[in-house]
Amino acid sequence: MQIKILGCSGGIGAGMRTTSLLVDNDVLIDAGTGVGDLPLEALLKIDHIFVTHTHLDHIVSIPLLLDTVMGLRAEPITVHATLEVINILKQHVFNWLIWPNFNLIPDPATPFLRYNEIFVGNGVKINSKTITAVPANHVIPAVGYQIDSGKNSLVFTGDTAGSTNFWHDVNQIGNLKVLIIETAFSNAEAELAVLSKHLCPATLAEELVHLQSHPAVYITHLKPGEDATIMQEIAANPKTQHCKALLHQQIFNL
């Protein structure tokens, strides 16, 4: 199983792309701006999108991807998400006002877009991999994901603040090799991090104390302009100095 980081920034700018992970060649975990770097041939191979939550930096490419490939595909793309997330997408994105309702066209029996409701703890098997939602704690309904090759697992937190439920589930994973965890703000913006339910380096250290295994830990969703400061603060804390910044185009072979 290969996981390629299409985007991992908390914003846009030259060389920066927002959150999206490509698993093998057929699954996206979130669909931020990095999806747009893929050639058409690669876009046509994407059959499934697992959504953590509906903030724009995580879903912006879903409407554009559908519009680009649907006339060239025989099968729909399936969006996997919790019921709360599906309802937000239906009401606020695919509502004919922001974007056409691809769940109804070309007709309801054979739509371009299908939804699959998922539940925390229940895995979805796609070819040789299993993708399971894990708890998250954000300002809107959200989950993270465990991506399991059968041999190794990667866990992606999505956007989240502290969550005892998250650590409970993660600590049950016996083959965890990689943890990608967000840290959006520097310590100077700790109050904003709490208000928006993101992590800063200080709260990252508090959270990682709960991790009982020893995967490689990568930091994602750093805000542009603060990224160097955030990583310096992480490196300065003995509890987090082993963490590395996630990189655009980084590849994990699991």
Return the structural class: alpha/beta
CATH architecture verdict: 4-Layer Sandwich
Low-confidence stretches: none
Question: What's the main sheet like?
Answer: 7 strands, mixed
Overall pLDDT level: 97
SSE string, helices as H and strands as E: EEEHEHHEHEEEEEHEHHEHEE
**How large is the share of residues in beta strands?**
25-35%
Number of strands: 14
CATH H-level superfamily title: Ribonuclease Z/Hydroxyacylglutathione hydrolase-like
Helix content: 10-25%
Sequence of strands across the biggest β-sheet: 6-5-4-3-2-1-14
Return the CATH topology.
Metallo-beta-lactamase, Chain A
Given this structure, which CATH class is correct?
A: Alpha Beta
Number of domains: 1
